[in-house]
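Model the whole thing, not chain by chain.
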Amino acid sequence: MTTVSASGAYLEVQGLMKWFGSDRAVDDISFSLPKGQFLTLLGPSGCGKTTTLMSIAGLHGIDAGVIRVGGTVYTSKADGIFLPPEKRDIGMVFQSYAIWPHMTVKQNVAYPLEIRKVERREIDARVADVLRLVGLADMSEKLATQLSGGQQQRAALARAIVSRPRLLLFDEPLSNLDLKLREQMRVELKRIQHEVGITSVYVTHDQAEALVMSDEIIVMSKGRIQQKGGPHQIYARPINAYVSNFIGVANLLKGRVVGVTAPGRGDVEIAEGGHRVKLSCQLGEGVAMGEEAVVSVRPENVHAERVNGGGQRLEGEVLQAIFLGNYVDCRVRWGEFEWKVLAHPRDRLREGEKVYLRLDPEHTLAVQQ
Amino acid sequence: MSVQTLPGTAADAPTTSRWRSLITQESVATLIVSVLVGAAVLLPLFTLVVSSFLVLDPGGFDTAWGFDNYKTLFTDRIIPRAFVNTLLISTGSTIVATVLGVSLAWINARTNCPWRDRLEPYNLIPFFLSPFVGAIAWHNLASPKTGLLNAWARHYLGIEGYLINVNNIYGVIWVTGIFFTPLVYLFVVGSLRRMDPSLEDSARTTGAGLVRTTMTVTLPLVAPGILSGAIIVFVTSAGEFGVPFKLSAPYGWETLTTQIFSKAVGDDANHYLGATMSMALGAITAFFIYVQQRYIAPRSFTTVTGKGFRPNVIDLGRWRWVAFGYNVAFILVAVVLPILCLFIVSLHPVWTAEIIPSDMSFRNYEKTLFFWRPDAIQAATNGIFNSLILAFAGASIAMVLSLVVSHMIHRTKGFGSRVLDFLCVVPIGFPGIVLAMGVLVTYIKTPIYATLWILLLGYITRFFPYGQRNIASVMLAISEELDQSSRMAGASWLTTLRRITIPLLKPGIFAGWVLLFIIFLRELSISIILYTSGTETLSVGVYYLTNFENEPLTSALSMAQTVMLLICILIFRRVAGREALTA
Amino acid sequence: MTAGNGVMVALDHLSKHFGVEKAVDNVSLAVAKGEFVTLLGPSGCGKTTTLRCIAGLEQPDAGEIRIGGDVVVSVARSRYLNPEDRNIGMVFQSYAVWPHMTVFDNVAYGLRVRRAPAAVIKERTTRALELVGLGQLAERYATKLSGGQRQRVALARAIVYEPRVVLFDEPLSNLDAKLREQMRVELVRLQREVGITSIYVTHDQSEALVMSDRVVVMNKGVIQQIGDPQTIYAHPANTFVANFIGVANLMEGTCLGRDGGFCALEIPLGDGRAPLRVRVSGAEGAAKGQRLILSLRPEDISLHLQQPDSIDSNLFAGEVIDTVYLGSFLECRVQVGRHEVGIQIDHYEQLSPGQTVFLTFRPDHGLCLTE
């Protein structure tokens, strides 16, 4: 049953379904991933991302679908194939690190090799190599309990990659670390994955983590895939209002496409907050003439100016200006609609002040609801 | 789906692999253990119910179905009184244990009482000793004529007659109360010590003084713990056999347990009536345990947020010396005096409430311990061997069982794990003597009767839940992902169990093992029902000596048992913290 | 000493030791009536100990604290008022909502302790619950509430009896990020509405910037700087403040002299490269040859792919180390000699490691610090 995919896909998930009682945790999901890539499954809790990961790991069975890695069928409901987790040759990093506290760092990392009956001398060499890679070379004799959170996470990573598995799975590994360490570990984790080149699937609910680390992102909601794409694509060209709102912050206004001026360009009439205006937009996928759409504008693409320079400008009043150091988080009242605006501290916007909002048509996007 | 099903071999291949995938190391082990535990727990209870409806004819040869046994419970000359006595004793000892336990716990956890961390281990010692032996000791301390304390009162205070008398229902309440004080103590001290101090701080900053904060915040928060402890004491007292047997039954205060015992052995034996009385006692205890598990335990407020708290400590000022004196007095009364008295009595050839240094010898120890000597008392020397064998084998088997059961309850989900979880609570709901009665009527006609095996079965069935809880508490504290990551690393279920799960649980397993070893070493109420000549245990030996020999001999064997238990406590404290005790 | 007009809480030379460690070292501070002051610093900086001294949960080793003119603790005069007699409110990190009481009983507690009449208790408790948006949940038990709701109960409980000051001990740190941001804004709104004097302890700099009238930055038990959020961010008093509030690139250099309100600074780059010469603001009294530290915010640096022609900004070149894409902006690390400079770009740019880029910043955006 080993068929190599023509598309060069290494990990293939087809028609995956998983039910918990009457609850469809994963609802017909298909995707594939080329060898060596870093894929992130992103979504809020309960969106099915972890269930998908556990299905790939073989930590539970599935209700429909096929999971293939490098041409080998791992799980196939129709054929009654289920490879137990220990036969899948997968490395996994858990949220709780799951470093065995009764072993030293070295013993933890050597474990997968011992199970595979690798020769002692080779074990020592490979463990030393991988500990150097993750920056724990001088910690190898420490007990897991003597390590800090970040160090435990590095040890867990070392243990997952030491046997050079076919696939590396991450289940929200950074969510137990504090903010500063988390930001640092993102970059580090990505560097190590790049260096060892193991195909990776990463689960998180943190959009910043997904943007920083991934080659590909799959945004999930209620057990289904909303959008798949590269980080910049997902952020700059979200397919619908859900993705636009989940990745970063967006001003979302409901409207209808009233004119198409050029391929992918058009006017959207919005009736929001007691106003009725036409906005010149980029038209997203599946948005056509006469159809309802949602206009999505990122706060950093809304410019609040004191003078009306003409063009596409909306007049409003500063409701709130929260100083956050490198930027000011503003709310601007426009009728009943509140615009989220990212302003520069040196603009010195004050609450109650009248401003004109300038929207750049390049960054004003009409998407599906 | 693009995969086509091929005719012939490929068509049935999925079915076979599907069946084969069900037979894993995990599922086979689960099945075997579930059946074993189910049979061990449910069979005796089932037989007990059935037997209670079998009425023995006056000749003692034939039985018929009927409710007559239940009628006897009410019409008998002694049984209704025994029933009332049982309730009185349980209520009384619950009050004594709760007052002592809560006050001692508060002193230790929340005040600046001097040397309080040194006192704590001694407060817990009665928990590990045999209440039966405690009763023997107090009998020698405070019998009207032969009690040492009364003799001293006559001699030094010039009192006529006696000062105190424990040979009655109040004596039972007293001894049971002080021996079960650590149960309440353990339930309360944990929540007092781990309580988030900001719960009290916020009452203070809101404007409540110290007393008001204690009454409206601290005490209500530990109330579920106090109630749980009190219920456990009530139930344990109701099922206690040794203390009333020694102190009240000979003087006309029978209890349900002493009555059950008289129906299980001896000339008057009627297993069916014994089963019926066991049903009555079991119904009471099971009801209370149900209430505790279902309604009280879940109410204990989770006041722990995972941070290491320094609990608020109250400065008692000069009163701290009063608190210290109070605590020391408890240790004196519950531990030091009884053991000292046992030792003194055991050195005399006969006990006349008078210490005669010239008569003292170790002769009684020779007769009860030196099995190779011709004048050794068999029932006593047998007891030591049998108890060591039972304790060792019982603790080991029970811990293996507990390990697999805990794994199934906490690492698998679904119907099976819930059933097992229930089965692990059931034995706790029934006193040892009740369960032993069930075991007796179930297996009396099988070859295991009159062997050590039936005792082993009784012990494990009644007490493996304690071991299981010890393991479960550790298991709940360690993440399931530790196991899963071993599977992901390529290890099978058994390898994972051997290399990851068991090593991680080692402290829990070891603590549980020693705890069970201690319980089995002092076990009386199951042994007394199930023993036969040749399978006496340590406590049965003590029973034999107190019944058929004299007090000094009894004290000697009691002393030997106590020393063995004290050694075990030392080991237990080494391997487990005090937290591991809250079973 | 008499309290100045409008001063609600005054700390005078407060010190507290734990063993040999100085947790609070000679701290003096005056908080005006109705003011929202935040004590900000890393863990172990003494901010919580200071707060607990004000609450009376900790006794200082030296100094004096006055609340509303009354001396609540004075070591010199051996005066110490119990927490319950100080008429303060406090909100704890663990919420400390009593699980055995309903929401109403929790909030009413302070009024009952003060023996308020039943009608007053009912009225004021209801009002406080409505204020925090929990009017519907009065009869709920605290155990049935979410973390955010518990925090609201704790807040209502602390303000219902109108104490002279409310103390906050990292109240939001147990909430998740989204809820935390929402609660910040709400808390400020509430505080302004009630006008209650507040002292707030946190280690989260954005919390401090968003909420406070004034921020007190502490480190190792000592106050580093007191000021409003803008001042603290734009004019940090020293490198600790510069680095703790926001992100700062710090580079050491030597003063070459002053010129037109700016300071000329020479920053050695190592590797045999010519030193960097920049004009920056700050360090007014600096003398020629003095050692100074340049503090530069990542968002104040502009990145260019080609060398800009004529500029009045400071210019230097470097090689891209790596980039981190965060959607609304791109973080980029650039190697400039021996220095690693972090910059923040507000648009998407395809940059590859090793690529040469040019960085500029305006003289008034760079700040010289003496330590």
